[in-house]
Amino acid sequence: MIDLLSILSIVLIISSLCVFGIRNYKIATYVYAFQTFILVMIFLFLYITYDAEQLGGWAIIAFFTKVIFVPFILLRLIKKLKVEHEDEPLLGFFISPVVAIAFSLAIAMAIYPIYLKFSLIQEHIPLIASITIFMIGIFGFILRNSAIKQILAYCTFENGIHLSLALMAYNSPEIAELGILTDAIFAVLIMAILSQRFFKYFGSLDVSKADELKG
Questions:
Q1: Number of other residues whose CB lies within 10 A of the CB of residue 195
Q2: pLDDT reported for residue 28
Q3: What pLDDT score does 177 carry?
Q4: In the prediction, which pLDDT does 202 show?
Q5: Range of the domain at 10
Q6: For residue 175, what pLDDT is reported?
Q7: What is the three-class DSSP state of 214?
Q8: Count of C-beta atoms within a 10 Å radius of residue 87
Q9: Inside any domain, residue 212
Q10: For 187, which DSSP code?
């Protein structure tokens, strides 16, 4: 019978794909907030199950920074730029999510045995989920041209890293500090400012237009 940790991990994969594929910026941002809330629930589950005090503190910090502040910054950016929907991405709206999830799962299935070998928690589905989420973030950078969707891809990518660290080394004394240091809030702030200036100059969030800066 599938356990709670595996169910939460599957929800993380589905929500990551939704963040990647949803065209509406506001809805994609709300789904990202939900995804990160599920990640916080996983931290708390591991904290209770494995008596990992570091993950308890990390869960509280992640809730305020990644569930509240990062979505707030993105929603404010969307409101300020008065943009609603993403422009047509590379490979189209239908094909790009299919390519992203197919290749992400394939890569995760190929390399998770290595993660399993070194992980403190010997759970197959959560480890596969951590790699899949990480790879969906990578494909977000490659296949989506919108600056806002690329910020969301970065946030998804970071959630995959956090889940990997929590599963593989939850009892490390440095894990909470690392979680704070790798937090997305300052990176998202900087990327939001750059996106605003990019939109002001090009009148679009399509980062492929940056090629016009050559020369």
A1: 22
A2: 95
A3: 61
A4: 83
A5: 4-207
A6: 62
A7: coil
A8: 14
A9: no
A10: H
Give yes or no for a contact between 175 and 166, defined as CB atoms under 8 angstroms apart.
yes
Residue 34, φ and ψ in degrees, nearest 5: -65, -45
**Looking at the 3D structure of the chain, how many domains does it have?**
1
Burial of 139 (0-12, 13-18, 19+ CB in 10 A): buried
Residue 215 falls inside a structural domain: no
- Residue pLDDT, tens place only, 107-143: 999 998 988 888 888 888 999 999 999 999 999 988 8
Contacts of residues 5-9 at CB distance under 8 Å and 24 or more positions apart, as own/partner, are 5/42, 5/45, 5/46, 5/49, 5/123, 5/125, 5/126, 6/123, 6/125, 6/126, 8/38, 8/41, 8/42, 8/45, 9/42, 9/123, 9/125, 9/126, 9/128, 9/129, 9/130, 9/163
* Domain assignment of residue 99, yes or no: yes
Counting every residue written for the chain, the total comes to: 215
In a domain, 214, yes or no: no
